[in-house]
Design a protein that fits this description.
The protein is mainly β and about 240 residues long. It has 2 domains: about 35 residues; about 180 residues, no CATH class. The protein has 1 helix and 18 strands. The protein is globular and about 50 Å long.
Length: about 240
């Protein structure tokens, strides 16, 4: 009888162990079914048509429209490059909204420290700044810049379409790419215009200075440089 009891007890333990194993297997299978599979396909357009964020890296398509606004900034430097396929900074967060391929970066306050923003080479750039300094390197695209007080320095610029750069109080210094072709019109109410192009003619009337001319081949591209209190410098890179 004692042997029979031990056999029965062992059988019960085996039964319980089998039931436990079966429950564990069913739980694992249920969890696997409820977990979505990870797709090996990655969409080439992972950015939504409209988005809002605060980041140091903004994905854009070819030839993006970039709009930047700030009450004032120590210095905003935009570095354009053929290898740059997005908008990025070295860790500084960019408050932005995006609609299609147009990105608006509105700081909404003073940018105390100098900030470098990397952008695609063929971007179209619009900057509105109350006071401070703007530097743009190696851009090939349309620009619209409005600065109340400070300096605008554009280096190795290839203009496209109609480009207007305005400074109410401060200097405008633009060096154009060697292969750039455009018509130019510059004027300042109180200041001087210095041109290193022989094809640019200048005229002065009292404190006001004007300059017009064509650089390179005939082109539909038009560059307007407008100053009120300050000098304008024009030349090749």
């Amino acid at each position: 009888m004692f042997t029979s009891y031990r056999a029965q007890k062992g059988a019960n333990r085996l039964h319980i162990a089998l039931l436990s194993s079966l429950c564990l297997i069913m739980f694992i299978l249920s969890a696997c079914e409820s977990t979505p599979a990870i797709s090996a396909y990655t969409s080439t357009d992972s950015t939504p048509a409209s988005s809002v964020g605060d980041t140091s890296y903004i994905v854009v398509g070819p030839d993006p429209e970039i709009i930047v606004k700030s009450a004032s900034a120590a210095q905003l430097t935009f570095v354009a490059s053929d290898t740059q396929k997005n908008i990025s900074t070295n860790g500084f967060s960019l408050p932005y909204t995006k609609q299609g391929n147009t990105v608006t970066i509105d700081f909404g306050e003073t940018v105390v420290h100098p900030l470098e923003i990397k952008i695609p080479h063929a971007a179209n750039l619009s900057v509105t700044l109350g006071s401070g300094n703007i530097v743009v390197n190696s851009l090939q695209g349309r620009v619209a810049m409005t600065l109340a007080n400070g300096t605008i320095h554009m280096k190795n610029f290839t203009p496209l379409g109609t480009d207007t750069i305005t400074s109410k109080s401060g200097t405008i210094d633009v060096s154009f790419a060697q292969n750039a072709s455009f018509h130019l019109k510059a004027q300042t109410k109180f200041g001087a215009i210095v041109s290193r192009y022989s094809t640019i003619s200048q005229k002065r009337s009292g404190m006001q200075a004007n300059a017009v001319g064509t650089i390179g081949q005939a082109s539909h591209t038009m560059v307007n440089l407008i100053g009120e209190y300050g000098s304008i410098t024009i030349g090749p890179t």
